[in-house]
């Protein structure tokens, strides 16, 4: 930036640029601080776009909030404003592309720009796009007119300026020549200084971003040894005979109203009957990503923790507790209303007693949030598998429904029947076995020669 840019810079543009700088800085501060405290959740929000490989999702999830914070600081103090605005513009374009591709593919998610994120039944893509376009226009303003009032950039230029000649000094030609030479030398020095500052700041930003990815990645790690005898991060709560031929994986959130609708429509009874008949085994993955819908009460994560506390007693106790949380008392839903106050721990303990759990260990487990890391692990494992909303159901490894389609009991039942038929056909002996093959296998007709259901009924997961 030359001295002429400072002297000729109009007053109104300088003040306007200051306002634009502060607005963009405030946006980046808000975006960063809403996400930087919970890196695991933001990575899950990035995965919900289903547009990046896992390594890139983690890099974005861990690094972007820190980059946003750095941009906020640079814009607030007005240092390398044009470069900060250019990076801001690039990010806004990336955000627009991400939102547009999600909308085009019919993926209903919150953008996660200011915390939260993930699947949502109420999207606002139009508002998100209009907001990002407006911010892109502000960034473009600073790219075009980067020199603003009260900025470090302006102070750097002022530090190198050569004092103007007085009218008396300007009358002498030698003074004018000296002034022009000094000004030219100062401009060269200014350009060098600006380049060094820009390069040094850019290197610092890159280093900080890489360090942040490592630090945030460490913060997002799930504590070791969180699995219990009846629940793991990979399987959730294992219910039923584990030798049953058809595995069913149910991903739910106790705060999810659609989960509540599905359970009350008969899913529990349908699955329970098939579990008792040893037709299926069910893995209940109780997730937590809807804490924001309980007015800060964090019902989603606390209820999930309580569910795993019930599983500590037995899978059967978990089933009873699970059904109560998705059930009704005196004709009224036990699930708290969405965006309402979640029930306290005392109510979760009371529902445990209703399920027949009277152990003091259960109460302590609930109040101490003993399985919070298990809840986080199950949620993160589900996110890695592409489960970004609830309810989600897999039967024999196949996901039911479309991207945003609600799963029905009939779909689950039909999928189970299809998987069971495949398992039975796999278990049946081959009708084309040749006599020579039989003689090679031996002529014994003992039970050990028969194909056992447990050995042959395995299915792809």
Automatic annotation (TrEMBL):
It comes from the Bacteria. The chain crosses the membrane at residues 12-31, 59-77, 84-104, 124-143, 196-215. This is Thioredoxin domain-containing protein. Belongs to the thioredoxin family. DsbA subfamily. Residues 233-416 form the Thioredoxin-like fold domain. The lineage of its organism: Bacteria, Bacillati, Actinomycetota, Actinomycetes, Jatrophihabitantales. It comes from Jatrophihabitans lederbergiae. Gene3D superfamilies: Glutaredoxin. It is a multi-pass membrane protein. Residues 420-461 are annotated as: Disordered. Keywords: Disulfide bond, Membrane, Oxidoreductase, Redox-active center, Signal, Transmembrane, Transmembrane helix. Signal peptide: none annotated. Residues 15-143 form the Methylamine utilisation protein MauE domain. It is found in: Membrane.
């Amino acid at each position: 930036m030359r001295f002429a840019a400072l002297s000729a810079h109009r007053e109104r543009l300088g003040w306007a640029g200051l306002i634009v700088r502060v607005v963009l800085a405030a946006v980046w501060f808000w975006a960063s601080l809403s996400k930087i405290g919970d890196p695991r959740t933001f990575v899950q929000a990035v995965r919900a776009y289903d547009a990046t490989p896992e390594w890139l999702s983690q890099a974005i999830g861990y690094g972007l909030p820190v980059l946003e914070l750095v941009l906020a600081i640079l814009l607030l103090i007005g240092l390398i404003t044009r470069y900060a605005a250019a990076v801001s513009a690039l990010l806004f374009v990336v955000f627009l592309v991400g939102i547009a591709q999600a909308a085009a593919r019919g993926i209903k998610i919150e953008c996660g720009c200011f915390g939260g994120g993930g699947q949502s039944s109420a999207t606002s893509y139009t508002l998100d796009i209009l907001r990002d376009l407006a911010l892109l226009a502000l960034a473009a303003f600073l790219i075009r007119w980067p020199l603003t009032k009260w900025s470090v950039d302006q102070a750097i230029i002022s530090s190198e300026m050569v004092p103007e000649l007085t009218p008396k000094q300007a009358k002498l030609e030698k003074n004018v020549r000296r002034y022009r030479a000094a000004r030219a030398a100062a401009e060269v020095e200014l350009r060098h200084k600006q380049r060094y500052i820009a390069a040094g700041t850019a290197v610092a930003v890159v280093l900080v971003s890489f360090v942040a990815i490592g630090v945030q990645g460490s913060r997002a790690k799930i504590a070791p040894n969180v699995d219990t005898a009846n629940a793991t991060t990979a399987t959730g709560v294992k219910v039923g005979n584990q030798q049953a031929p058809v595995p069913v994986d149910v991903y739910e959130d106790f705060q999810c109203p659609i989960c509540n609708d599905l359970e009350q429509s008969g899913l529990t009874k349908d699955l329970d009957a098939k579990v008792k008949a040893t037709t299926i085994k069910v893995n209940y993955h109780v997730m937590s990503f809807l804490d924001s819908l309980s007015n800060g009460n964090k019902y989603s994560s606390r209820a999930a923790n309580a569910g795993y506390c019930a599983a500590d007693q037995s899978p059967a106790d978990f089933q009873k507790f699970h059904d109560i949380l998705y059930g009704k008392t005196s004709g009224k839903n036990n699930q708290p209303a969405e965006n309402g106050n979640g029930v306290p721990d005392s109510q979760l303990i009371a529902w445990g007693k209703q399920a027949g759990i009277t152990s003091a260990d259960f109460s302590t487990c609930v109040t101490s949030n003993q399985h919070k890391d298990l809840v986080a692990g199950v949620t993160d494992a589900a996110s890695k598998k592409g489960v970004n909303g609830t309810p989600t159901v897999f039967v024999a490894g196949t996901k039911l429904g479309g991207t945003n389609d609600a799963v029905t009991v009939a779909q689950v039942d039909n999928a189970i029947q299809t998987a069971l038929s495949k398992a039975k056909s796999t278990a049946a002996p081959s009708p084309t076995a040749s006599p020579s093959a039989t003689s090679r296998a031996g002529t014994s007709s003992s039970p050990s020669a028969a194909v056992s259901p447990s050995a042959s009924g395995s299915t792809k997961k």
